[in-house]
Write a structure and sequence with these properties.
The structure holds 2 protein chains of 2 kinds.
Chain A (H helix, E strand, L loop, with lengths): L1 H6 L4 H38 L16 H11 L10 H20 L15 H9 L2 H11 L3 H32 L4 H6 L14 H17 L11 H4 L9 H25 L10 H4 L8 H16 L6 H29 L7 H29 L4 H6 L8 H8 L8 H6 L1 H25 L1
Chain B lengths: L5 H22 L3 H21 L3 H26 L11 H24 L27 H9 L4 H4 L14 H22 L15 H4 L5
Helix pairs in contact in B: 1-2, 2-3
Classes of the chains: A mainly alpha, B mainly alpha.
Chain lengths: 444, 219
Amino acid sequence: MAELLISISTPDWLAHIIAALVQCALLLAIALCSAAVGIWLERKVSARIQDRLGPTRVGGRFGWLQPPADGLKLICKEDIIPAAADHILFRIAPYISFCAVFCVFLALPFANGWVAVELNAGAFFLLAVAGLEIFGVILGGYASGSKWSLYGAMREAAQVVSYEIPLGLCVVVIILLTGTMNLVAIGNQQAGWFFNWHIFHDPFTFVTFWVYVTCAVASSNRAPFDLPEAESELVAGFLTEYSGFRWVFFFMGEYASMFVVSALGALLFLGGWNGPVPIASLLGLTPEHGAIGGWINTILGPIISMLGLTLDPAAWIGNLLGMCNFIAKAFLGMTFMIWLRWTLPRLRIDQVITTCLKYCVPIVSAMLAGVMLWSFFLPGGLFAALTQPASFPRSAWERTDSTLRVDGPQDVGEMQEEAGTRNVTALRSHAEHGNEGNIQEESR
Amino acid sequence: MDAINWHGCFFLLFAAVACGFAVAVVVAGNIVRMACCLVVSLAAVAGLFFLAGAEFLGAAQLMVYVGGTMVLLIFGVMLTARGPLVSMKTGGGQWVLALVIGVALFAVLLQAATSSSAWDGPRENNLVRHDPVQSEESVTQDAAGQLGLGLLGVREDKIRQENKVLRGGMSGYLLAFEIISVHLVVVLVGAAYLARARRRVQGSGVRTPSPESRTPIPE
């Protein structure tokens, strides 16, 4: 982007600023659109579950202009700050909440390489920043100067801080499997047919996925875990004193974080931008160019280069398909969460904590150990083991020697004799071998 | 070429935010505002780490320090929301003591900072990561993996070293890692011990817990 602007004689500094602003605007658009669509979806799905129609009039038959209308109404509302409130903190709390969620979008890849900042520790960054959303909530709850708000904020704190542990462990399971925290690499390792997705890698990851779903619902404060804003007990929890535009910020933050946890789940477990059927790679819409991809490139290539752009049209179209895939999966996840919300009753706070500490944490710890053993003995995954029985006696012990690729002195070999080291290198090398297995499968 | 030194700009920005809010922590009277300023200051330090390309460290800073301060904030609110501590009054003696310690620490840090070679902006090898050909060789490519291996007793950067002397420390940080792990387990057990529900004296209605508080989760 910046290079393009420089090439049409924009000053260097201006080009960089414009490029940065364009990327920010794109991400903001995705965050806000996901919130708007989420609100519309919530209204429609809840209406259908309760045998109603939901919004039908604003913007045509399906009421799809309802979120902008809601937003307009809320902006026009009076901005009330209670007299007992801590004014500064009360004002900044909604922004903190939304900014934390927005920061997650910076590291969230939407397709192969389509990510604002590709971080090597992307998964870790995502977890760290997503946990900051509650900071705004706690601050807002405290600063409102109301006991309902304070109770809501304290419940939120207890809930989210406890659920961060199993949520983090779920992500660790996948990191263990992939050997990387780079989210783009994690997505690319699941390329191919749907049985390459990590959820189908082995029974342990399958169970881990459902623990992840539970924790994701809990950490985004959705029913049945919506204790912080339990309207029958706490008025509206931390939202009680908020009105108008500040309330909108909290709400957009909540829906954007729903999108984020669904997207992260899709990325870690459900193949990311890789569809159930690898249409893009079957058509050759990858950087390697298959039949149709090469054909598209011969047609579009000259036009693109005439415009002074340096992109690969076939791979670009493939990525576009991938992004549609990814966003569809994220919205599927959101729909699931909405379905849960309107189906299950709210838990009590002790049940919430029991679910976390007595069920989620032990289950996911056992799954972590299980995945560790599985990826040591059957690294190719369940379907590779079923379809290619010849490939899995290739045990972890054999693989270690070839994969560390040490060019150093001979006594390094002695180092490797230690079983612990072997273990680690086997785990690290698993990523490459997992890919190999995938490629072999595709070629069959 | 009049390119702006973006690293320099953002370094100054983050550093100013970190220092400014650190001062605000001291100046602010309300304990929640203090914690809030502390969070911003620590987040700015995380920004400095990201700027330096230490992504893992930056994320760890966000996770551990910023998240930890959040818990501190919660306790601050829980313990002092309606108490005498909600606005902290600092006496003159405490100010003097804090100033002496602060200035002494600052002198040590200043000495350490100025004794290293001067910061000279983004060098070519800092920008290597953007070059796709070079990135295979780049150290930052898989920093988290190297870090993990280092904690488990193998340092990849040392293991390739041919010189015996320079290869010292090849065994990584396994001992430190184990000590910290055991320490944390002890802390966890201690916390669980302190927080456990106390058994009441036998014969005073222990066997009749109220049904609301003891209902197990419905399956």
